[in-house]
Design a protein that fits this description.
It is built from 21 helices and 15 strands. By secondary structure, the protein is α/β, with parallel strands linked by helices.
Length: 516
């Protein structure tokens, strides 16, 4: 049957003739739950209001993942298997299952363009923060401030300290680092370009995107390798290159996978591409397919992911206790105000955070940080869950996997949503800090280098973990969300009101008094 569809797509419903992201998402989550909790699996399939109630089932994934060491592996296997058997790939009017495209679809050749940076400056790391360039003792002091305030976990702080103590780690001339979504605002391109890295940049054929990438590379000391559908002369000008370079993760998935697998170097693959709405799930699946294929062809490949803090995670017992202490130690005024607002709004605001502990078969107890923001939607949650599943499974099978929670960041994709922008602006009311993109970039780039360089980082599969889900607990910079005394999505709307009111001084002063 001929079709105008192209590339990686959600499956088409045979009755409505339209793609249903809701049905596909429900089926993937249900399959992930099917072995560990059949009732929750069936409830997910029967859910009538997926858009509103999806957090229930994502929380169930984590809860059952905690209970046994094997559950988290089973969930990841089931979820990824279902996902790869659900999505379709269209080429020349023909439909293929996503799982078959690497071997069944004819691929065109991608050529490689190489460009070297023009700077000879030595690699250096610092953290841009509130108009300063933090390094040395000033950086160590700020790391301690963040740690003491519960903005970052101790493991994140320790990793940053190790990175600061080992400047030699930042000479990346021995690494070949693949960036899916190289032009991403929250990605590490700017730093890798200063650290002599060999950078394989994958991003859309887009003049504006490639103009930025090429300028970043030219100003640095790294070497760029970029895909192109044409074989261009070595001396091709940047003006021409920015019009010619690029590959589409959604439509050239097999081409990119085959191109990368032919590299003679060990590869570090970073899944940092982001697209809005249902496209985010599709690009997550494209990156996952490429990572799986390249890892099969090149067993020494490492993987990198950046998690969002607005998700649901297993967390250490001591973090749960810290959140509970915050709830108990609220001022009388704050207790009365939050209770009153909660009552008036039928608990839409200020629900108490989840302070229950879940026993695991490893003899330990863990809590759950449910920081899902309903407004971000089930597609966003599914895309990020796919990445967690791949990370969990890949490390289980012996791959080095860097996966760290990055803080809420004021990127364009966030601030273009007025509600999220206001919520992050007012989040300080609950001791939550959001970061500027340049600060997040510096911190998370350093975490990736730590994970690649330090032999005892949890990215190393030889480092013992008591539970597979600890892979996402370690190195977390959640901005304080894990320790908020209220269920995050019932506090952030009030934070948004505070953010909107920031310019109205009387309201701001009153709320500051309440905070005290």
């Amino acid at each position: 049957m001929s079709t105008s569809l192209n590339g990686l797509q959600f499956p088409i419903n045979p009755h409505s003739k339209k793609a249903s992201t809701t049905q596909t998402g429900k089926e993937i989550i249900a399959e992930a739950l099917s072995i560990v909790d059949n009732k929750s699996s069936m409830d997910a399939l029967a859910e009538k209001n997926w858009r509103k109630h999806y957090p229930i089932y994502f929380k169930a994934l984590v809860e059952h993942g905690i209970r046994t060491i094997n559950n988290s592996i089973t969930i990841a296997k089931q979820g990824l298997h279902k996902a790869h058997h659900s999505f379709d790939f269209y080429r020349d009017g023909q439909r293929y299952l996503l799982k078959d495209i690497m071997k069944d679809v004819d691929t065109a050749t991608l050529y490689t363009i190489q460009l070297k940076g023009e700077s000879d400056i030595a690699p250096e790391w610092y953290v841009p923060y509130k108009g300063q360039k933090l390094k040395g003792q000033a950086l160590l002091d700020q790391i301690q401030i963040w740690q003491d305030a519960g903005i970052i976990e101790c493991s994140h702080a320790d990793a940053l300290r190790s990175a600061q103590a080992h400047p030699e780690w930042f000479d990346l001339s021995d690494r070949t680092m693949v960036l899916f979504g190289a032009g991403s605002e929250a990605g590490p391109l700017t730093w890798l370009a200063r650290w002599k890295a060999n950078i394989i940049a994958v991003d859309l054929p887009n003049t504006r995107v490639w103009d930025r990438i090429l300028n970043t590379i030219q100003q640095g000391n790294a070497t760029l390798y970029a895909p192109c559908t044409e074989k261009l002369a070595e001396d091709t000008s940047s003006t021409v290159l920015k019009e010619k370079l690029g590959a589409d993760l959604l439509t050239q998935t097999p081409e990119i996978a085959h191109w990368l697998s032919q590299s003679e170097h060990q590869l570090d693959l970073a899944a940092i591409a982001y697209l809005d709405g249902e496209k985010h799930v599709r690009v997550a699946m494209a990156m996952d397919s490429i990572m799986e294929y390249v890892s099969e062809q090149k067993s020494d490949t490492s993987l990198m992911f950046m998690c969002t803090p607005t998700d649901v995670y297993a967390i250490p017992k001591e973090v749960v206790e810290a959140s509970y202490d915050k709830f108990q130690c609220r001022s009388k005024v704050r207790q009365l105000l939050s209770k009153g607002i909660s009552t008036v709004t039928a608990q839409r605001f200020f629900q108490q955070n989840l302070h229950t502990l879940i026993s695991s078969d490893n003899g330990q107890e863990y809590g759950i940080a449910d920081c899902l923001v309903v407004e971000q939607g089930p597609n966003y949650a599914l895309a990020k869950r796919i990445q967690q599943w791949r990370a969990t499974l890949a490390r289980h099978y012996g791959q080095r996997v860097s996966i760290n929670i990055a803080p809420s960041t004021t990127t364009h994709s966030v601030t273009k949503n007025p509600l999220l922008k206001a919520a992050f602006s007012g989040a300080s009311l609950f001791d939550v800090e959001s970061f500027s993109p340049e600060t997040t970039n510096a911190l998370m780039a350093a975490l990736w280098i730590y994970d690649l360089r330090h032999p005892e980082s949890v990215a190393n599969p030889e480092t013992h973990l008591d539970h597979p889900l600890e892979l996402m607990m370690k190195g977390a910079n959640h901005g304080g969300l894990w320790r908020v005394p209220y269920l995050a999505r019932t506090a952030l709307p009030f934070a948004a009101l505070y953010g909107f009111a920031n310019q109205k001084l009387p309201i701001k002063k009153v709320l500051r008094k309440i905070k005290k």
